[in-house]
Amino acid sequence: MPPADVSTAAPTHLEAADNEAPDGREPSDGPGRPRTGRRTIIVLAIALLAAIASLGVLGYRTFEYRSDDALRADAVDTAREYAIAMSSFDFQNLDANRDTIVGMSTGDFADRYVQMVDVLSDVVTDGQGRATATADHVAVESIDGATAVVLVFADQQATNVTAPEGNSQKYRMVISMVRDGDRWLVDNVETV
User: Fold this and answer.
1) What pLDDT is recorded for position 147?
2) Residue 26 carries which DSSP code?
3) Environment class of 72 (CB within 10 Å of its CB; exposed 0-12, middle 13-18, buried 19+)
4) CA-to-CA distance for 47 and 19, rounded, in angstroms?
5) What is the DSSP annotation of 58-113?
6) What per-residue confidence (pLDDT) applies to 17?
7) Over 90: is that where the pLDDT of 175 sits?
8) pTM assigned to the model
9) Domain ranges of the chain
10) Top-level CATH class of 52-191?
11) Among 6-15, 30-39, 161-170, which is the least confidently predicted range?
12) What are the backbone dihedrals phi and psi of residue 2, each rounded to the nearest 5 degrees, phi first?
């Protein structure tokens, strides 16, 4: 018998499995499972991966948002504490007040502050000056994680030998801060 022409020979059982089922039905992935089931599983797997990735991005953004909130809260707390310390003093203990301010400042700003205090310390001591302050209104103007600008409204009640009954001053401050590790340091203060 002559060899069969490969191009016209009937498909073998293996070839039929690739192209069509022996009984003419849709090819399958196994008993009772049409090949379209595999496509459905792949589409579902891709959709699941996309959903997981979306949840990951959402989780990161939520964490980032909470981190920004924490940075803002820290900046507000630091600016409030700083404004109160800067606006409060007691002629009998000027060094403690200066040390508090210096400890919350960058090196450059601390140097400028110390120079200013050195010029005014004799006036405050001779006049027996005392002051207390509050800062009830504090808000972040801008923040980017490494720097912040905070607006502070401080109210000061001061007494001295020329005004023993005291007087009130209102200060509006723009406090520029930089992030140093896990805390904010004041880099500049402007009164407006």
Assistant:
1) 97
2) P
3) middle
4) 29
5) HHHHHHHHHHHHHHHHHHHHHHHHHHHHHH-EEGGGHHHHHHHHHHTB-HHHHHHH
6) 45
7) yes
8) 0.65
9) 52-191
10) alpha beta
11) 6-15
12) -70, 150
